[in-house]
Design goal:
Structural class: alpha/beta
Largest sheet: 5 strands, parallel
Bound molecules: adenosine monophosphate
Helix content: 55-70%
Radius of gyration: 16 Å
Number of domains: 1
Strand content: 5-15%
CATH topology: Rossmann fold
Number of helices: 9
CATH class: Alpha Beta
Distance between the termini: 8 Å
Shape: globular
Number of strands: 5
CATH architecture: 3-Layer(aba) Sandwich
């Protein structure tokens, strides 16, 4: 599947799991800024050292730092890709639109995977990642509402938004995505 997609949605909605599986099934490039940043932290790079505390709090890494790691990963026009966890702010969304226009690889769809707040908290607590403590989860949901949720209107206005219900099992959600995209 040679599509250019992004996944949007609150933390805990299942974006990462679904993005990884969809990309693997269809031979697309899966670009998760969270994974890329965690790799920088684990490798102890200068960027990793700078962003570590920000990520532990559940705050957003600066737009400049995130854009620097995304740029250059989208250069192969022959492969479909799936952005996961990026963009997360309007500044990032505008920068992405500019970059894709420059590359003549327009985005084809922004897929919103949505889920009610109480279910999100439950899922995040079950996941048990280092930044999944109760305090951090509350902060990440607040940051999502404030900084990322406005992207829903951004992509809706551009006629690119599709919505998928994030409630249910991994396989049920995967089937909804396949119906939507293939
Ligand atoms: P995720 O794996 O997508 O939940 O991301 C984990 C953490 O990495 C987030 O809580 C942020 O601190 C940081 N992060 C990931 N993607 C971005 C982004 N696009 N903009 C800013 N910070 C990000």
């Amino acid at each position: 599947m040679n599509q250019r997609l992004l996944f949007l949605g609150p933390p805990g909605a299942g974006k990462g799991t679904q993005a990884q599986q969809l990309a693997a099934r269809h031979g697309m490039l899966h670009l998760s800024t969270g994974d890329m940043l965690r790799a920088e932290v684990d490798a102890g790079t200068p960027l990793g050292i700078e962003v570590n505390a920000v990520m532990e709090r559940g705050d957003l890494v600066s737009d400049e730092q995130v854009l620097a790691i995304v740029r250059g990963r989208l250069l192969n026009p022959n492969q479909g890709w799936l952005l996961d966890g990026f963009p997360r702010t309007l500044v990032q969304a505008e920068a992405l639109a500019d970059l894709l226009e420059e590359l003549q690889q327009p985005l084809q769809r922004a897929v919103l995977i949505d889920l009610a707040d109480d279910l999100l908290v439950q899922r995040l607590l079950n996941r048990g990642r280092a930044d999944d403590t109760a305090d951090t989860i509350r902060n990440r949901l607040r940051v999502y509402q404030e900084k990322t949720a406005p992207l829903i209107a951004f992509y809706e206005e551009r006629g690119l938004l599709a919505r998928v219900d994030g409630e249910g099992t991994i396989d049920e959600i995967a089937a909804r995505l396949e119906d939507l995209l293939t």
